[in-house]
Design a protein that fits this description.
Serine Threonine Protein Phosphatase 5, Tetratricopeptide repeat, mainly alpha, 2 domains
Length: about 240
């Protein structure tokens, strides 16, 4: 029996719209998530749709890549998140990554894009170098979220890879913008939780930032030091 193929973009959008919830949209807005194009579909539902497409996606990666592009182009908030789950990292190009990053207008889509897709591309480290010094708020955030995703998902990367990210964190810690500042802090904490060596290196950066003249940098430092000095985290790293 022939397996069903990938649905059309209109069919997928219809599935998302079946779960639209205006109450959720209002709640998401309170957390700084853009309301334009947002349906209020719960994240478990979006992930469920992605899982249902899994077999067809594996059978037709080119088709999945095309479907992801169409979902992203729709401008629908949840469709863009779904696109990050459906697309195939090996088929993503640098131009596509840059174009999608330029479209970002919400922290949650930014984080899903980086974690689900871009951190698994062969040029993820290049994006870190390019985006962490970018001016647009969500592009810059994306650079630091890719760091966070790499610390979790790239189990084979040497410590030197992450040590090279620490000067980027130290350089940009003074950015006062909320979504950048929080991503810089997140990246510092994630690096520091990876192993003993990186823990010591991250703490050293945080101590320098704590004594800086920047209010944002001091916040990044104090919040990171609070987590990195937690006894449970220190015990896990030592173990």
């Amino acid at each position: 029996m022939e397996e069903p193929g990938l649905p059309s973009v209109s069919e997928v959008l219809d599935r998302l719209r079946e779960h639209a919830n205006p109450v959720n949209v209002a709640g998401m807005a309170r957390f700084g998530i853009a309301g334009a194009g947002t349906l209020g579909v719960p994240m478990p539902v979006t992930r469920g749709i992605a899982r249902a497409l899994g077999k067809a996606r594996r059978a037709d990666p080119e088709g999945a890549h095309a479907l992801a592009a169409a979902l992203w182009s729709s401008g629908v908030h949840e469709a863009r998140i779904l696109a990050t789950l459906v697309d195939v990292p090996g088929l993503v190009t640098r131009d596509q990554a840059r174009a999608w990053a330029a479209d970002l207008d919400s922290w949650d889509v930014c984080d899903q894009l980086c974690s689900n897709l871009l951190a698994s591309t062969p040029f993820a480290i290049e994006l870190v170098g390019e985006w962490t010094c970018a001016e647009p708020e969500f592009v810059k955030r994306a650079g630091f979220v890719v760091i966070c995703a790499l610390t979790v998902h790239d189990k084979t990367a040497a410590d030197d890879v992450f040590v090279r990210f620490l000067p980027l964190i130290e350089r940009e810690a003074a950015d006062e913008r909320n979504f950048v500042k929080k991503a810089v802090n997140w990246a510092l904490r994630q690096i520091g939780k990876r192993d003993r060596y990186l823990h010591a290196a991250a703490v050293a950066v945080a101590l320098r930032l704590r004594d800086s003249g920047s209010r944002a940098a001091r916040w990044v430092a104090s919040d990171a030091l609070r987590e990195l000095s937690d006894e449970r985290i220190v015990a896990r790293i030592r173990a």
